[in-house]
Amino acid sequence: MPDVDADLARGLRLLEQAPLGKLVESIGTAIAEAQYNMDRFVIKTLELLDDSDENGVQLPDEADKRSMLELGFTPSFYHFREATITAKVAFSAVKGEEFGVGAEAGGGYPGIFFVSVNASYSNKYSFTADGSSEVRTTIVSLPPPGPLTDILMERMARRQRE
Questions:
Q1: Spatial distance between the Cα atoms of 93 and 103, rounded to a whole number of angstroms
Q2: What predicted TM-score, i.e. pTM, was given to this entire model?
C-alpha cells in the first residue's frame, strides 16, 4: 500500500532541489543576449539609413540623393526595462476509500426469484505534482545615445559644407 506522506515528502524534496538559481541565470543571460542582438540590429539599420547611394531619396529639384539620416530618420533603440519570473508548483496527495454494494433481482417462475449480490472494496491513492512558469518582459524605446547623436550631427554638417 503506497505511503501518501512519503510521496508528498519526496515531492517537496524535489521542489527544494529545483535549480531556480540556474533558471534565473539562464533567463538573465537570454535577456542580455537579446539586448546585444537588438543593439547590433540598430547599428546595421543605422548603416542602411546612412547609405545615400543604395537607400537614398532624391528630392524634387535636387540632383543628388540624400540619405535617410540626412532627412532626419533615425533607428529606434530598445531596452529591456523589466523582467519578471514567476514559478508556480502545486502538490496534492489524496487517500480515499471506496465501498459499494449492488444487487439485482429477477426471476422467471411465479413465487420463485433469484438475487445476485455484488460487493466491491477498493483503496485509492493519488499523488500529483503540477508546475508552471512564466516570464514577462517590458521593452521600451529609447532615443539614440548622446555621443551617437553628436557624431551624426557632425557628419551631417560636414556633408553640407562639402
A1: 33
A2: 0.56
